[in-house]
Design goal:
Elements lengths: L1 E2 L5 E2 L10 E5 L5 E5 L8 E3 L1 H12 L7
Antiparallel strand pairs: 1-2, 3-4, 4-5
Protein name: DUF397 domain-containing protein
InterPro entries: DUF397
Pfam families: DUF397 (PF04149)
Length: 66
């Protein structure tokens, strides 16, 4: 993962075409997500429990485009 000063990071597995999500961990255990191309855009915040469910679904391929 690549860290920056604002705490936002994206996985080194992200595509190099710029179509990526960035994330940052919050002190309350939640995770913020945003589009890497729109730094000032909307942020989706997931609780620690919801982040775990989301990350597992991504790893398992449950959210792959069909």
């Amino acid at each position: 993962m690549q860290d920056n000063r604002s705490g936002w990071f994206k996985s080194t597995y992200s595509a190099q075409n710029g179509d990526c999500l960035e994330a940052r961990h919050r002190t309350d255990g939640a995770v913020d997500l945003r589009d890497s191309k729109i730094h000032g855009g909307p942020v989706l915040t997931l609780s620690a429990d919801r982040w775990s469910v989301f990350a597992t679904a991504v790893k398992d391929g449950a959210l792959a485009a069909r």
